[in-house]
Design goal:
alpha+beta, six-stranded antiparallel beta sheet, globular, 6 strands, 184 residues
């Protein structure tokens, strides 16, 4: 199975497992999810949308350790740092306007260089895409930020910039192989 397909399957599974946060950012009622999140660097009190993305990609690349080895150096528990790391990598593909399955979708909080949100693209329909996001609200309450669960939400590209809210930044694509640039 391709890495992107594996990532989508893992993300979709998380969105149906009723993963519930022990508020606020104190862990999860699902002890396996708790152990998995701690194993990738999440610590008590941390926001966790980026940790959820990191865990999903780590599991999605379990059969491709070479790609995960490089991705793990770029992925961060801060969504904004993660977006910059992948964007600045000379080989790893990102896009500001084309969603792809398995990609990490990153939003920026207003004009902040430190605050934002992220999730995994699990469906694409024209200028709309669906993500599975950690540290979010249920689909019945999409306007609530900093939530308590893993859930799927549908988003639209091309929305106007807002000062007090999330603005889409970029997609970080899931890839099958990584060939670093060789400088001679």
């Amino acid at each position: 199975m391709a890495a992107a397909d594996q990532i989508v399957q893992i993300a979709n599974n998380y969105s149906t497992e009723n993963i519930t946060e022990i508020q606020v950012n104190a862990g999860w009622t699902d002890k396996q999810y708790q152990a998995d999140m701690v194993s990738i660097g999440w610590a008590h009190g941390d926001e966790w949308c980026a940790a959820s993305v990191k865990l999903t990609w780590k599991k999605g690349y379990a059969d491709n350790p070479a790609v995960w080895a490089h991705a793990s150096r770029l992925i961060s528990l801060n969504s904004q740092e993660m977006a910059r790391n992948f964007h600045n990598d000379p080989v790893w593909p990102t896009s500001t306007h084309v969603p792809k399955l398995g990609a990490i979708a990153v939003w920026q909080e207003g004009d902040s260089l430190k605050q934002g949100h992220c999730g995994i693209v699990v469906a694409v329909n024209g200028n709309q895409f669906t993500t599975v996001e950690g540290n979010t609200s249920s689909p019945s309450m999409p306007s609530i930020r900093n939530g308590w669960t893993v859930a799927a939400h549908t988003h639209t590209l091309g929305l106007p910039h807002v000062v007090n809210g999330l603005n889409f930044d970029r997609f970080v694509y899931a890839i099958e192989s990584y060939s670093p640039l060789v400088v001679e």
